Amino acid sequence: MNGLTLNAEQQLPVNDTEGAVLVLAGAGSGKTRVLTARIAHLVGDLGVSPSNILAITFTNKAANEMKERLGLLTEIGGMWVSTIHSMCVRILRMYADRRGLTENFSIYSEQERAAVIKQTFKECGYDEEGLLKNVKWHIGNAKMLGLSPEEYGRRFGHERNIEAAVKVYAGYAAHLKRNNALDFDDLLTEARSLLAEDGEAREYLAGKFRYIHVDEFQDTNAVQFDIIRMLASEHGNLFVVGDDDQSIYGWRGAEIKNILNFERSYPRAKVYKLQQNYRSTKAILDLANASISHNSLRKQKRLWTENGEGAKPVWFEAEEEAALRRAARHRA
């Protein structure tokens, strides 16, 4: 098909190209291989234009690796393969004027954001360091949830220091607007607002992306899933790959319910499982399966491997990371 050898589990979702598809991929089961093979199948075998394909990952490293893999398999000219933040930058530069920006808007780094929030905090008449830390947390939480200062104030009016947080947040938002700037979180919220409020932009982008692929779907938050859902609204061909057993980013807004409840959002979705592990020994997988089976919020799957039994895992507890590294070197 495209030069890649796939096992039977992997081949099924590659061939299932229409509609919503959820692939529950265990650790070391070849999920990126499946995703890239599917895109190569669409372009090379089914004649889909690369410009009609979108592939979203969550780190620049993963995006670059995916581009390299795809480039060895098929034509990728015009294909969008990027992090979701980079995708949003591209979309917002296309429609900057509709969001009150110019095409060359600035994107603040975390350091710049922190400095402007601190200055706004002082301009609002506050000076307590402990309060500043709390205000920063609230602003970050509001951005993660995609809420304006007014919306956040209404929803979290019971929280301590909320009045100060809303006041500083509003001042910070005004600063960004005056300076034709967005911060990292704004890239998502502004893109979501554009798609939700601008029918013409949504219709064009949703029409353009006939096939949408999302890697590490368990790491998506509510705002990101809204964006993905709107981009997939025209054709409905949404292919997501993830592992609910590896969802560890709840602290930064990842919504495990996005993957657990995928079939509620897409009732006709097809679900596949990748359970053959190519990375670990049988002993490691036995321990992993036994441990994760106690988690009640998960999709059922059990990893297996054709690899050898391997050394029996041992329990080692240390007070610091350096001690763990020394122990690992010693065992090696």
What is the helix/strand order? HEHEHEHEHHHHEHHEHEHHEHH
Unreliable parts: none
* Count of DSSP H/I helices: 15
CATH class of the largest domain: Alpha Beta
Which structural class matches the secondary elements? alpha/beta
Spatial order of the strands in the main sheet? 3-2-6-7-1-8
| SS elements, strand count | 8
Mean pLDDT: 93
Q: According to CATH, what is the topology of the largest domain? A: Rossmann fold
Relevant CATH superfamily of the largest domain? P-loop containing nucleotide triphosphate hydrolases
Overall outline: globular
Q: Give the distance, in angstroms, between the N- and C-terminal Cα atoms.
A: 40 Å
> For the CA atoms, what is the radius of gyration?
23 Å
Strand content: 5-15%
State the domain count: 3
Shape-level CATH architecture of the largest domain = 3-Layer(aba) Sandwich
Helix proportion? 40-55%
What composes the largest sheet?
6 strands, parallel
